[in-house]
Design brief:
Layout lengths: L2 E5 H8 L6 H8 L4 E5 L11 E6 L10 H11 L22 E4 L9 E8 L5 H18 L6 E7 L7 E6 L5 E2 L8 E2 H7 L1 H10 L5 E5 L5 E4 L3 E2 L13 E7 L2 H17 L3 E9 L8 E4 L7 E4 H8 L5 H9 L4 E10 L2 E12 L10 H12 L19 H15 L3 E2 L5 E2 L1 H6 L9 E2 L10 E2 L4 H9 L8 E12 L7 E12 L5 H14 L5 E4 L5 E11 L2 E9 L1 H7 L5 E7 H4 L1
Parallel strand pairs: 4-7, 4-14, 19-23
Antiparallel strand pairs: 1-3, 2-3, 5-13, 5-14, 6-13, 7-10, 8-9, 10-11, 11-12, 14-15, 16-18, 17-18, 20-22, 21-22, 23-24, 24-28, 25-26, 26-27, 27-28
């Protein structure tokens, strides 16, 4: 879970109060789903003391900074919900005196950008450290190690507007990067600069690389790798900053910009919008003034609140609780949700704050009602039923399979069940016909439910080229896919997937591994030729159990290996364990 280090003096200034005891402070942190990881060292001067706070949830990136966490505590403690008049929206656009032009060349590289101006206050050492921490937390956690979101801070005094965001040949442009003293081309940065080496995996295989320049063609940065050593070198004492974010998912990039703008506004900075003009269509249009409010309201009936929380609450109680969470809400009888209109006697409609986009369902509104009302306000209730738990047959069988694979020299892996279309479909040479797509994903990286374990195994192998071969990894986990024979149109199954990478990875090796596994689980099986696109034709076979196809194994196709950047031959297998029961 994310951990943040906050300057104690700045944090308490932003919360508007101090707590008398450590226990009282820890109790207050629960409204932010946080806990005190480490108290400050009282022997240090007041301005140098640091609190370490751990966030116990990842769906609220706005809390991963001093200002965001302090804002939540301040509002929950009775403070007024802040207003941010600098936001634009679908129906209202603020005037912007500065512009960023986004060329069509970046559409297939890193297509989205958001930005704003922060001015009117000198940057102190503590505030600069906090900005850098927020930048890194958003880019590393929310932005998947800068893959989907990266952020840059720049000194406005030496920028010549408008700014242009474009894609270039990595050998055609050079500049002096931050913490360096000689010019390097973009490709040289990836090979020589510490940050370039750290994040080279994002860009090194692309023919064109993104670049941010001003009207005099002076380089601001090479997103998402490194800023320039002049325009991108923010220092203590600077008063006017340009804050820019780029990425691959427009809602995520826009939300991250909103979070940063609200944090700086809370710290006393004046926020000025920036107009972003695209040469191509985007989900938010060709012209966009950021910060931009794009979130949709969510309706929750009082009946649902009662069902979720176990206690009957009035609409006024719900509104008061949401107000303590910084959520604007009002009473409503119904709200249109897609094509259906949910008719109820009473309920509330909630608009997420500008810095949040985690309201995906009525349950999220109910959760904020619960936190806003405080957990201690709900009466504890004893369980009414006595039950004895036990493991299911598939769990027993899965554990047995795991023990066998470990005995065969394989290492167990555990993965997320959600992923991107690129990872689950395109990189796996699939057509996506049976894959399940989530209708309201928070980010494109968790947009699809995996229908195979092999994509997860390939992802691990793609970042393991430095390890000694052979590599043997496996996972036993759930997959889901479209199935018209099921009542809900989908089927969820327990799958085993294993992968062997090394010079000896060939079809004969795969046959030997499969025979060993089936011998120890006491199952008879047959094979027949398979035309699975993930494997080399003629070097793959389907696995049959009692006449039914339950899996596939063989040599992984070279194109699939290339998609993942894997340079060593691989064999893999995937088996439906539910079918073996």
């Amino acid at each position: 879970m994310p951990k943040i280090e906050v300057n104690e003096e700045l944090f308490y200034t932003l919360t508007g109060r101090r707590w008398d005891t450590k226990d009282a402070f820890e109790e207050a942190l629960t409204c932010a789903k946080a806990e005190l990881d480490e108290d400050s060292d009282k022997s240090l001067p007041a301005g140098e003391r640091t609190l370490k706070i751990e966030l116990n949830d990842t769906n609220r990136p706005d809390l991963w900074a001093t200002a965001g966490c302090a804002r939540q505590l301040r509002i929950h403690n009775g403070g007024k919900r802040p207003e941010y008049p600098f936001f634009s929206g679908p129906e209202k656009s603020q005037k912007a005196s500065r512009k960023v032009l986004v060329e069509a060349s970046v559409k297939g590289v890193r297509p989205y950008l958001a930005g704003f101006i922060a001015s009117g206050k000198s940057i102190t050492d503590s505030s600069l450290r906090d900005m850098i921490q927020t930048q890194e937390k958003l880019a590393w956690n929310f932005g998947r190690k800068r893959r989907t979101i990266s952020m840059g801070l720049y000194r406005i005094a030496i920028i010549k507007w408008p700014i242009t965001y474009k894609a270039v040949d990595p050998d055609s442009v050079s500049f002096v990067p931050l913490q360096w003293d000689v010019p390097l081309t973009l490709r040289e940065i990836l090979k020589q600069h510490p940050k370039g080496k750290e994040y080279a995996f994002i860009q090194e295989h692309e023919p064109l690389h993104p670049l941010l320049v001003d009207s005099k063609n002076a380089v601001l940065s090479y997103p998402p790798i490194i800023n320039s050593a002049d325009l991108g070198a923010v220092q203590v004492g600077d008063t006017d900053l340009f804050v820019e974010l780029t990425g691959t998912d427009q809602p995520s990039v826009t939300l991250a910009a909103s979070i940063m703008a609200c944090d700086l506004a809370d710290q006393g900075y004046t926020i000025e919008p920036v107009e972003v003009e695209y040469e191509y269509d985007t989900p938010f249009g060709r012209k966009l003034t950021t910060p931009y409010y794009f979130q949709k309201p969510v309706f929750c009936s009082l009946a649902r609140v009662e069902r979720f929380l176990g206690e009957k609450l009035s609409a006024d109680e719900c509104l008061a609780a949401l107000e303590r969470m910084g959520v604007k809400a009002e009473k409503a009888d119904s709200i249109e949700n897609g094509e259906a209109l949910e008719q109820v006697k009473n309920g509330v409609i909630a608009w997420p704050p500008e810095y949040r986009n985690d309201f995906l369902h009525a349950a999220d509104v109910a959760e904020d009602v619960m936190i806003g009302r405080t957990l201690n306000s709900f009466k504890p209730e004893r369980p009414r039923d006595f039950t004895v738990g036990r493991l299911t047959p598939i769990t027993y069988f899965s554990r047995r399979v795991k023990e066998i694979l470990v005995g065969m020299g394989y290492q167990e892996m555990i993965y997320n069940y959600l992923g991107s279309r690129k990872d689950l479909v395109e990189n796996m040479r699939g057509d996506g016909a049976k894959i399940i797509r989530i209708s309201n994903p928070m980010t494109e990286n968790y947009e699809y439910v995996r229908d195979s374990v092999l994509a997860s195994l390939m992802q691990s192998e793609s970042v393991s080229g430095h390890s000694v071969y052979p590599h043997r990894i496996f996972e036993v986990g759930k997959v889901a896919y479209r199935d018209s024979a099921e009542n809900y149109g989908t089927s969820t199954r327990q799958y085993l997937g294993f992968l062997h990478a090394g010079q000896d990875a060939n079809f004969n090796t795969a046959v030997g591994q499969l025979q060993t596994l089936f011998y120890y689980i006491s199952r008879e099986y047959e094979v027949e030729e398979s035309t699975d696109s993930r494997f080399i034709p003629g070097r793959a076979a389907a696995i049959l159990y009692q006449g039914k196809r339950i899996g596939v194994f063989g040599e992984v196709h070279p194109e699939l290996l290339e998609n993942w950047g894997v340079t060593m031959p691989c064999i893999a297998a995937e088996i439906d364990l539910d079918a073996l029961l």
